[in-house]
Specification:
The chain has about 700 residues and is of the alpha/beta class. Helices cover about 25% and strands about 25% of the residues. Helix 4 runs parallel beside helix 6.
Length: about 700
């Protein structure tokens, strides 16, 4: 087993500056040990070499008086830590540009981008395609590194101030795209409506993967296990992600950053590890001030509760770092993980719902996906995230779910459609929303076969007074007194077949102002906001608008309740976990083996939509795990109060609705108080089915 496959990383990245080239390694190692670090990531080369490079076109840190990389590796290993060497080939020193200008990125006007003496390179230029391999080879041949990481890998078009210069138009890009596409010139626009730009996006993916193939071949030719890591899942061992902030990023603030980052990799690829880095800095500009300690606490605990290790980054070194406020939080969570490491790194799914994450070169539907993610989390439904790119490879496990959700993904490949249809034939229910599966050809054929609908024309409603009617209260149980729900954005007309039943009649727009003219709405008999198709034991639901995106953007619970009510129609066995915990408590349930479950609760009540405060304690939480087995025992890993375990008693959910009937083998955990975080291991004598 390779060292990283234990999935027990407690990684600290010291993102070194050129001025750190002679840092005190002994002091750094002692500080890392206080944080229970077991993996150190520091800079090796690329923009700046932190070792005595022998390569002509590799700029070494000015004034460096020692081989920092060699010393760091030796002392990290002596302290029981692994060391990952960081590279960044997206840019190079201006002295190299002066000698090899053809290696570098060019704007449409043919200009280079020089940012404070560091010049943007191009993935299709010789520096990245050829010379970067020499840099990697120099390090892995001469230094005992345990892994290599590439920052900003792929196509980069922005500088650090956020200025976007557009696609690279260097001669290498022009030639390679022309050859790859069969004669096309680089696109004039960056619109997905432009077919040339859509081809260019596919070209970007193909050339990025080709470069990763070449790096993989080089690194894996060595006898030692060296982990490859970057922000791409192709041919890497550790997929890096980040939970970070930026004040100019549009709202809503994404509360589930770490959970989603982990799930979308952990649930989809069996042969890859994900390491989600909690970036301490507020943004790229203000690197020396950290985010709230409460936000760091949430990120790190979401990491481990979702099934990964820990990852934290600061600029420079701890000595002299001007914001130490978050370090006690980092130490606390890292130390918790070290003490309980035996229970982490080997989670198995306990979910009965799968949510597909949009992927591929053109990832449509991300806002719809995010809204679904938020809704499922708030409703405490157990779900896996299956990345679209891994869907076909995970075909065999799709039959384990009760329902699979396809959120506004317009086009699936033939293999992906085949995997979904096979699961459907096995009895798995499908729910698709937005413009899902409306691409011409195989996708529309699938839409007709499985959902019994035909896609029609599309309409966009932004300032029109349009609604859907929640007429069938047996389906839309969250709407006993509300009959109309607003619709905005794109709405697709659909022709509904004989096996499908129309739901949510469309309330045609009418005048809304002045108040004296706010009347005249007409209930359509031809347009509907949902259809439920039944075909023997099989069932599917199609929603031709985007309630998930509306919930993500605006937060109106109506849109969440619409899709959850429809999902409930497909969940014939009911949910696997039931809790009375409020929506701002995040629930995680995983299996460790057939007899053992691990349960986490994370109190998110301190988040008010923008700011992170200390969470408000929640009292009297009950969690029922349905059908897991008999004679349970409970081990408490983390809790501020004494949890107890026993047979279930009747309780209702947070909407005040009675829950599904309990079955034999149900187990209830009662937690008197949740202040911040709780973790339990539940073991049974006889596993449930």
């Amino acid at each position: 087993m390779a060292w990283w496959e234990r999935n027990n990383l407690r990684l600290i990245q010291n993102n070194l500056r050129e001025s750190d080239a002679n840092l005190d390694v002994d002091l750094l190692i002692s500080e890392l040990q206080r944080l229970s670090t077991n993996v150190l990531m520091i800079n090796a080369g690329g923009i700046v070499a932190f070792y005595p490079t022998q390569l002509e076109y590799h700029y070494r840190a000015a004034g460096q008086q020692k081989d920092l990389l060699a010393e760091a590796i030796e002392k990290a290993h002596k302290a029981g830590m692994k060391l990952i060497a960081r590279f960044d080939f997206s840019k190079a020193h201006e002295s190299i540009y002066a000698r090899k200008p053809e290696w570098f990125y060019r704007t449409r006007k043919g200009e280079a981008v020089n940012y404070h003496g560091i010049v943007h390179t191009c993935i299709n230029g010789e520096y990245q395609r050829e010379y970067s391999l020499k840099l990697i080879d120099e390090v892995i041949s001469n230094y005992d590194v345990d892994g290599i990481f590439f920052n900003m890998f792929g196509y980069q078009t922005q500088d650090y101030s956020g200025h976007d210069y557009g696609i690279c138009c260097c001669d290498s890009c022009r030639t390679r795209f022309r050859d790859w596409s069969g004669g096309l010139e680089l696109p004039e626009t960056e619109s997905l409506l432009d077919p040339t730009y859509r081809s260019y996006k596919q070209f970007q993916q193909a050339t990025t993967r080709e470069m990763l193939d070449r790096i993989h071949t080089l690194v894996k030719s060595r006898p030692k296990d060296i982990a490859i890591s970057t922000y791409n899942e192709h041919k890497v061992d550790i997929v890096r992600k980040e939970s970070n902030t930026d004040p100019i990023r549009p709202h809503p603030v994404w509360l589930y950053s770490a959970s989603e980052n982990i799930q979308s990799l952990e649930d989809s690829w069996d042969d890859k590890l994900v390491s989600n880095c909690s970036i301490n800095a507020i943004d790229l500009i203000h690197r020396f001030t950290g985010v709230s300690s409460h936000e760091v606490n949430i990120r790190l605990k979401q990491n481990i509760a979702s099934g990964s290790g820990l990852d934290f980054c600061i600029i420079g070194v701890f000595d002299g770092y001007p914001d130490r406020e978050n370090l006690p939080t980092v130490a606390e969570v890292f130390n918790y993980h070290r003490r309980n490491e035996a229970y982490y790194g080997r989670f198995l799914s306990a979910a009965d719902i799968a949510l597909i994450k949009p992927g591929g070169p053109i990832a449509s539907g991300m806002k719809e996906y995010s809204g679904w993610y938020k809704a499922l989390k708030e409703h405490h439904l157990l779900f896996d995230v299956l990345h679209q790119n891994a869907l076909a490879d995970q075909a065999k496990r799709l039959g384990n779910y009760q329902a699979i959700i396809v959120p506004a993904i317009e086009e699936l490949t033939e293999d992906q459609l085949r995997a979904l249809e096979e699961a459907y034939r096995q009895g798995v229910r499908l729910l698709a929303t937005g413009s899902a599966l409306t691409a011409e050809g195989e996708n529309r054929d699938f839409l007709e076969r499985v959902f019994d609908i035909r896609a029609g024309s599309r309409h966009t409603f932004e300032r029109e007074a349009a609604y859907f009617q929640t007429a069938d209260k047996t389906v839309f149980r969250h709407f006993p007194e509300r009959d109309w729900v607003i619709v905005k954005g794109t709405f697709m007309e659909m022709s509904i077949g004989s096996n499908a039943k129309a739901q949510l009649p469309f309330v045609e727009p009418s005048t809304f102002g002045p108040p004296e003219r706010a009347f005249g709405h007409r209930l359509s008999t031809e347009r509907f906001g949902a259809s439920i198709c039944t075909d023997g034991p099989r069932a599917s639901v199609y929603v031709p608008w985007s309630p998930g995106e509306l919930y993500y953007r605006y937060g109106y619970e109506d849109h969440k309740h619409i899709v959850l009510d429809l999902l409930e129609q497909l969940m014939t066995n009911g949910p696997k976990a039931i809790t009375n915990a409020p929506h701002n408590v995040e629930l995680f349930v995983h299996r460790l083996d057939e007899r053992t479950h691990i349960v986490h609760l994370l109190n998110l009540s301190g988040f008010n939509g923008i700011t992170y405060f200390e969470p408000v304690p929640v009292h009297g939480i009950q969690i029922t795990l349905r059908g897991i087995g008999e004679a349970a025992s409970l081990k408490v890993l983390a809790s501020e109060s004494s949890a107890v375990i026993g047979p279930p008693s009747a309780h209702t959910n947070t909407a005040g609705q009675p829950e599904a009937a309990q079955t034999t083998g149900d187990v209830m955990i009662t937690l008197p108080e949740l202040r911040d975080f709780a973790a339990f291991v539940v073991q049974v004598e006889t596993p449930g089915k």
